[in-house]
Structures
1.
Amino acid sequence: MDANLPVLALLGPTASGKTDLALQLARNWPVEIVSVDSGMVYCGMDIGTAKPSLQEQSEVPHHLIDIRDPTDAYSAAQFRHDAAACVAAIHARGRIPLLVGGTMLYFRVLRTALAAMPDADPAIRQALDEEVAAYGLKALYERLCVQDPRTAQRLQPTDRQRIQRALEVLQQTGRPLSYWHTQTPSEELPWHSATFWLGLFPEDRFWLHQRIERRLEQMWQRGFLEEVWQLAQRPDLHEQLPAMRAVGYRQALQHIQGHIDLETMRDRALFATRQLAKRQLTWMRSFAGAQWLDPSVLNTQTLCKELELVLKKAHNI
C-alpha cells in the first residue's frame, strides 16, 4: 500500500453532520466514501437512514450502500470483508478511502482482529423466531443460561437478537459462543496502521438533541411513513428482521400495524434516537487514538479546514 494513500475514518453520533463534512471534504480531496452504516446497506431504506441522495452519490463515489435486501442478514464480519475489498480497490485507483458512519461495531471490527465465527443459518433463525412466537423470549434466555451461562451473563434478557444468535451458534456447531470468542482471531487489516481516525464529538448535548429532533421532523416531512408503509406491504418483511429493528423503522412499523398512535410513534422514535446517540458517544469516549472535533462550536466549512490541516500535517499530503 502506498504510504501517501492513507485510510481516513470519520465517525460520530447520529445527526452530528458526518455526511455534510464528508461531502465537503470530497470536493477538495481525491476521496471515495465507504459507508459505515448498518442501515444504509439495505435497499429501500433511504429516508430513515439519512442515506445520501442520488445526486450526492453521483458527485462522489459511494460504496456499501444499497448492497442488501432488507430480508438479508448482514454481519459485522461481512462488513469487515466488504470494507477491506473497497479500500483495496480505491487505493488501486490512486484515491483515498474515506470511511464514514455511526455504526460503532463496524468501526470496532476495522480496528481489531475478528474472532472466528460461523456464518448465519437462515433455517435455524426461522426456527428460533417460531420458538419466540410460541413460548416467548424468556424461555430462550433461560435455555441460554443453562447451555452457555457465560454468554447469557453478559446479555440482557430482552436482547432478542444476541440471544438468538448465541443459540444459533450452539445449534450449528455444538459449541457455545464463548468458545468461539477464544479462538484464533483473523489478522489485522493491512492498512490498520495507516488509518487516520477522526471523530465528531459534540460537547453540547442540547445542540445534538436539537439536531436529532430537526432530522426526525425532516424525515416525517420527506415521507418516512410512506417509505415504511411500502416496506410493510412485502409479505417477507416483518418486525423481527434486523433491518426492521433499526431506530425509527421499528416505531413506524408499530404505528402502521396499529399498535401505537402517531404521537406515541414520534415520541418513541425521538427517545430511541437520543438513546442511540448516547450509546455512540459512550463508545467514542473509549476510542483511543482519534482526533476529535466539536461540531457544536464549529460549522462545516471550519470543520473541513481544521480537518484538512490535521491531515496535511499527519500525512504530509
2.
Amino acid sequence: MSKIYKVLFALIFIVIVSAAGFTFTVKEGYSVIISRFGKIVNIYNNAGLYFKLPFPIDKVITYDTRNQYMDSGYNETLTNDKINIILQTYIVWRINDIQKFHTSIGNYNFAQRHLNDLAATAKNSVLGNYPLSSLVSTNIEEIKIDEICQTIWEMTAGPALANYGIEIQALKIKRLALPEANIKSVFNQMIADRQKYVSQYIAEGERDSAIITGSADARAAEIYAQGKLEASAIDAETERMIARIYGEAYDRNSKLFIFLKKLLALENSVNADTTVIMRANESPFDVITGAN
C-alpha cells in the first residue's frame, strides 16, 4: 500500500512539474514575451493561463505595462535672456509597444536613462526660446509654464514612442531653482520689472487726473459763462422793467415823480454825521426851501 502511495505521489509531482514547465500565467497589468532560443515567438498582453514549451526551449520574459513614474535629473540650462536655471521634471510613462521595448532597451533602468536624456535635450532646446519671466514673474500673464511643458513633452514623446515603444503620458516641471550666483541679478530684474509697472501706473494715473481736471475746469467755465449770460439777461430785464415803471410814474404825475427822486437823492447823500454846504436853490436841496 505504501508503494502505491509513493507511486501516486511521484505521478502527482511529475504532473505538477510538467504543468509548471508547460504553462505560465500573465497577470493583469503585465505583458509576456515568449522567446525561443533568443527569438520572439509570441507576445501575450491579456491576463490568463497560457501554454509553452519547457525551459530552456521557451523563455518567459515579463514586463510591467502599468504607468511608471520617474523624476528626471537636475539640468542646468540657459534661458533666452541668458539666465542659468536648474530645472527638474517628472515623467509618467508606460510600455506601449512591448516588442520594440524588448528589442531596443529591455530594461527599466535603461528606459529611464534614455527618457532622462531625451527630456534633457528637449529642455535645453525649448527653454532657449523663452525668457526667465516665462517661468518666474510677478505678472501672471507672462508665465508660460504650461506651454513650455507641452513643447518639451512633444519633443520627448515622439522619439520615445518611435525608438523605444514607450508612451509618455505626462511630462511636467517639478522643481525650478537658480544657481546662487544668479539669484541677486534675478531679484534685481524682478524689482526692475515691477518698477516699470509702477511707473506705468503712475503715468496713467497722472494722465487720467489731467483729463478729469481739464474736463472739470471746462465744465466749470461753461457753467460760469452760462451764469454770467443769464445774470446779464436778468439785469437787462430788470433795468427794462425799472425804466418802464419810472416812465409810467412820470407819465402819471411828473412833478411828484421829480419831487420824490430829489428826496431819494437827498436821503442817499446825507446821514447823522454829514456836514453839508449847499445852495438852497439848487437841486436836490431846493426841495427843503421850496425854491422850486
3.
Amino acid sequence: MKMKKIMKKEKVAVIGLGYVGLPLAVQASLKGYEVYGLDNDKQKIKKIKKNQSPIQEKFLIKNIHQAKIKATCRSSVLKKADIILICVPTPVDKNFYPDLKPVRKAVETITHHLNSKNKPLIVIESTINPGVSEEVVEPIFREAGYKVGRDYELSHCPERINPGDSRWNVTNINRVVGSFTKRGLQKTLNFYKDIIDAEIYPMKSIREAEAVKIIENSFRDINIAFVNELAKSFDKLNIDIVDVIQGASTKPFAFMPHWPSCGVGGHCIPVDPYYLIERAKQAGFNHKFLKTAREINNSMPEYTVELMQNSLNEIKKPLNGTKIGILGLSYKANVDDLRETPAFKIIDLLKKQKAKVLTFDPYFPQLSDVKNLKELLRKSEAILLVTDHKEFKSIEAKDFQRYKIKVIIDGKNCLNKEEIKRKKIIYKGIGH
C-alpha cells in the first residue's frame, strides 16, 4: 500500500510577538507550519523558548506549550520565510499623529533579508490607514530594488483580536484580506483559510482592506462617545444612563448597546480614528464627526476626576491630601494590557490636585502601590474604580463600609449602586 506523500508546509516568520503576532505564530505552528518569531524583547523571547506565554491570554496559556515557535531577535531568519507577517504596533504620538515608524522599520528589515527566489508573501496585520501599503510600504521595497508581483507579494489582513474574550480568538474570528495582485490575494486567502476556522473575505483592493479596520473601530469610538456625552447630560437630568440603555436594548433591531466609562483604552479604538482623520486631512477632507468623538472620549478621565471632587465636596473634603484608592490600571477587565489605558491620565489629574493616590491591579502587582485589595481599602478614604476586573466587581458594599470608605466613583458602572448607597456611602457612576 502506497503512503500518501505529506506536503511540507511553508515557513512563516512573524515580526512582533505581541497581542497580535504571538497568537498568530502559535496558531500557524499548530496548523503545521514551521514558524519563526521575531521580536526585539529578549525577555519575551526567553519566555517563548521555554513555552511560556509573556501575555496573560487564555488561548496562549492553553496552547503555547504545544507550539514549536523558533523565537529569536535575529532578523536573518527572514531569509528562510515563504510568508512574513508584520504585527508591529501602530501608535499615535502625544499630538495624536500616526506613528508609522515601527511599520517602516519592519519593512526595511525585510528588504535586507528578502529572498526573492521564494517570492515571499508579505502580509501587514498592523492597523494602518488607507493608502499606507501603496504610499509607504511598496515604495520602500521598490527603492530596495524589489517589485511587487515579481519578487514578492504584498497583502493586508487587518488584525482582529479581543483580549480576554473566552469565545472569540485568533482561531475563529472572520477576517478580510486585500492585495496588490490576484496571485497575492489568492496566496493570502489560502494561508488564512488554512489556519483560521472562519470566513476569510476578499476585498477588491488593498486600500479597501486597510479601510475596514479603521471603520470598525471608528464606529465603536463614535458610539461610545455618544453614550459618554449622554452620561454627562443625563447626570444633569437625573436619569440613569445604564437603565435607559438596557431599556433601549429591548428593541430587536436598529439598536446596538454601547456603555459609558471613565475613558476609552486599548490599542485600537482610541488610536485608529486618528489614522483616518490625518489621512483624510492630507486628501483635503475634514472629519468633524470623528474629531468630536475623540474629544468627547478623551475628556472622560477629567470628567471622572470632577465627579470625585464634587463627591468629596459633599462631605467637605478637598482632593488635596485625600487618600484615593485606584482600582485597576488595565484598560480592560481581566487582562494585563496597559495600552492607552485611561488610568494613568486619571492618576496624573488627581496628583495635580495633590491627592494622595494609591493603586492596585492584580494583573500588575509590580506597578501597584499596595500588595493586595484589602490593603488598598484599608489605606483609602475614597475609591475610584477604573477597571472592572472580576476581583473588584465582587466587592460587597459591606466591605467598603468596614474600611470606612466615604466616596466611591465607579468608572465602569459595575458595582452595586443601591447596596452602596444603603450603607450611606456616596456613590457616583458615569451617568449612573
4.
Amino acid sequence: MTVNECAEWLRARDNFLIITHRRPDGDTIGSAAALAGALRAAGKMAHALRNGETTARYLPLIEPFHAPDSFEPGHIIAVDTASREMFPGAASGIERVDLSIDHHPSNTLYAEETLCDPSRASCGELVFDVISRLGEVSRDMAEALYIAVSTDTGCFSYDNTNAGAFLAASRLAELGADTAGINKRFFRSRSRSRVAIEGFIYSGLEFLFGGKAAVAVITNEMMKRSGADEDDIENIAALPVSIEGVLAGVTIREMKGGGCKVSVRSSPGLSSNEICARFGGGGHAAAAGFTSDEAPESLKPKIAAVLKELFER
C-alpha cells in the first residue's frame, strides 16, 4: 500500500481503533495520537486502545484518545508494530487487524493492508505523510509527530537518522511543534533515579571481544535500590553502545514476572536485527530486541556466541 492509497483507505472508512505496541515508546504513542487526532479532525470516530504499559512520560499525549469501554470499532489499525507478538495485553483478544502502518523491515504482514517503509527513521514520518493528505496538520499533531521522530532517532543522533527525518522535523517545526521544549523534556532532563540506575549499569558493564561489545544487566534489585521506574529507563539501551570502541551494546533487563527483555544497539556494519533474529526477535539494523524466558546469566553466553560469530566473519 502506498501513502496515497492509505489516505484513501482511511477516508473511505470510519470507527477506528488504534493499537500501540508493548512497552510503548515515543514513536508508537506519537504516531497513534497524531493519527487519532487527524481522523477526528476529518470527522471520523477514532480512539486508541488503552495500553497499560504506557508510562507517565507519554500518558498525557495519548490519554485524550483512549477508547471508552463501550466502543465497538469497525476497523483496527496498528502503528509502529512489526508483529502480533508485540501487541499489548489489552489487544490479546483482537483477531483481525485491518491496517498496519510501520517502518520495521521485520514486519510480518499480519494485517489485511500494510503501509511499511523501512527507509523511514520513524513510523511518525509515514503517519505525517498520510495525515497531510487527510487535512490540515494541527500544532498538537505536529508535536506528537515530532516526539515520534525525535525519540526514534535519539534526537537525531542515531545511525538511522537520514535526510527524511531532518526534513520531517523541519516541517513539523514550521507547523508549530515546540521542538526546544520537547528536546529538553525528553533528552536533556534526568531524574535522580535515572542517574542512580545509570551508575549501577556503568559499574557492572562487561566488555567482550577486546571492547567491541559491551553487555549491561539491569536486575530487579537494581531497579529497587535506585527507585527507578519505567520512565527512568527510557532509552537506557543506548548507554553501552555510546562508549568509545563499542560496536554492539547489549542490555539485558530482568523482568518482574521472570525472564528478561534484551535490547541490542549497534554501529554500521553490524546488524542488531540479525543478532536478535537468532532469538526470535527483530527490529532495525541499528536497534532491535527480543524477549526470553531465560535468566540474564544463562542468556549472556548465548548472545556472546552470536556476537563472536558475527565479529569473525
